[in-house]
Amino acid sequence: MLPVTRYFVFRMVLLLTVLAVIGGYYVHPLIYRALYVLLPLSALGIYDRVQTRHAILRNYPLMGHFRFLFESIRVEIRQYFIEDDQAPVPYSREQRALVYQRSKNETDKLPFGTIKDVNAIGYGWLSHSLKPVSNLDHDFRLTMGGKDCQKPYSASIFNISGMSFGAMSANAVLALSKGAKTGNFAQNTGEGSISPYHRQGGGDLIWQIASGYFGCRTAEGRFDPEAFARQAADPQVKMIEIKLSQGAKPGHGGILPKAKITPEIAATRLISRDHDCESPAAHPEFSTPRETIQFIARLRELSGGKPVGLKLAIGHRSEFLSLVKAMLAMGTAPDFIVVDGGEGGTGAAPLELSNNVGLPLIEGLSYVHNALLGAGLRQEVRVGASGKIVSAFDICRIMALGADFIMAARPFMFSVGCIQARACHTNKCPTGVTTQDKKRQSALVVEDKYIRVANYHRNTMKALAEMLGTAGIKHPGDVRPWHLHIRANTGEIIRGDVAYPRVKDGALIDGTANEALMREWHRAQIDSYDQMDESIVKAVTTPA
Q: What is the mean pLDDT of residues 412-418?
């Protein structure tokens, strides 16, 4: 039996075309009639292979057209033939369509008003002003770097979140980097370190350092300060991000299967190809809040004073407060903190871990914002947010609740061709985005896709400027919780500042924060992530 590969149909059509020509000449002229069908199909298959717009068609000539056919009638198929979908895709068709439209410079305007159910529970919107602002500059930026930073960075408020070379193909990394360079925004390397394709693309980089210390590790997997200093000195590296945990798999180290580790990936990460690459669940270089802050200061010094920050998903809340207490005690803080929501994505993670561990972005972000505010540190630390942020309204909503900037991964993957085939871990990605198979990834044409990356960023920022203008706001940093409205479970309309109240600046220091937050504050310890014993907390907090 012939194996059915991605080129099977195309090759069979070519073979049948040749046989029809031979049969018509040697057997009977009537056989030539088959060429009326076979020749157009052959021409279409050849065109599919050489065109640069659709990676699916380059990898699956002829067969790929069925994907577009089924996509076009997907709603009807689901309505009539699928009664109960137990495995919905992580991002909706509407969200993906928005990214595709913006990345291709297509209009996202629709007639006949909203397609949302405005009476649905959880529906949210931005209140508009009778004094709207027009013609805003959409290149929204902010300065990254606190009082201990010697080389601050002027960053876009919307950047590419961490996606590693290894998980991502070389062509995908290169397209993202060139897109970031073109659009003047930054790309986070992910924990896989800085690859030749990040450098070749030339975009600004946020170098992520995770528990495996890839690109700056010893043979035993410990942190190598000299290797770090060499890489961090590169002018392309603008900021350093220490990843403590990831929303899609909090408390779980990253995994790159052995089958995907090429010699190039091994050289980039400084790892062996003999086994799967597994990052430890925790950093071996530090284990207490005080040591965490010391490591941040150490990397800032080794990098020559570049901004150094943290990325984490919020779990035990007192543990984050332990970090905040350590910042106060040591007189230094990270330049930024990126809050990753529990709904964030990944190429591979245990399903139950992804679904059931980690605080969702809105709750985690609100908590971090209030903790820094209550400790009097909010002005010193920039707060970023990551987790299913796609549209201009998503950005408005998240910034209204406390974020200074946004990191997004999946929408930028959509812009380079991802279709959510969910084959990231198999090395058989149909669009060449998450595979190390050279033939498969060649379907992703960098010169076409990097323009789409820049287009998506630019058009989303333009949409954000337009949305802010309707509310009479000139910069995303001026969005406040009261600009946001939400339909609650009762059907009542509530303002964002009611749904997500903010504490007073310094409230944790003077003891005026709410009882629940104060209790967590008293349980937090500087020299241990363990919570203080309940009896000790009672003794400390009970009046004499």
A: 92
CA distances from 157 to 105, 392, 444, 480 (A): 21, 12, 27, 16
User: Cβ distance 105 to 459 under 8 Å?
Assistant: yes
Q: Cα separation of 249 and 226, whole Å?
A: 30
> DSSP letters along 264-323, please?
HHHHHHT--SSS-EE--SS-SS--SHHHHHHHHHHHHHHTTS--EEEEE---SHHHHHHH
Tokens representing 372 are 């820094």
* Residue 498 φ/ψ, nearest 5 degrees: -85, -40
Please name which of 313, 338, 161, 320 lies closest in space to residue 250, comparing C-alpha atoms: 313
Count CA atoms within 13 Å of residue 135 on its CB side: 0
Q: Tens digit of pLDDT for each residue in 290-301? A: 999 999 999 999
| Backbone φ, ψ for residue 516 (5° rounding) | -65, -45
Residue 352: band (very low, low, confident or very high) from pLDDT cuts 50, 70, 90: low
Q: Are 365 and 383 in contact (CB under 8 A)?
A: yes
pLDDT band at residue 370, thresholds of 50, 70 and 90?
Answer: very high
- In the chain, where are the structural domains located? 8-72, 141-499, 511-541
CATH for 141-499 is: 3.20.20.70
For residue 313, the Cα-to-chain-centroid distance in whole angstroms is 13
Q: Give the single-character DSSP code of 192.
A: T
Return all residues near 74 (Cβ < 8 A) that are at least 6 apart.
Answer: 93
420-461 pLDDT, tens digit each: 887 887 888 888 999 988 888 888 999 999 999 999 999 999
| 456 residue type, one letter | Y
Cα separations (Å) of 513 from 498, 501, 502?
A: 16, 11, 10
Q: Quick check: 78 pLDDT over 50?
A: no
Cα 246 from chain centroid? Answer: 11
Q: Name the 3-class secondary structure at 511.
A: coil
Given a cut of 60, whether residue 18 has pLDDT beyond it is yes
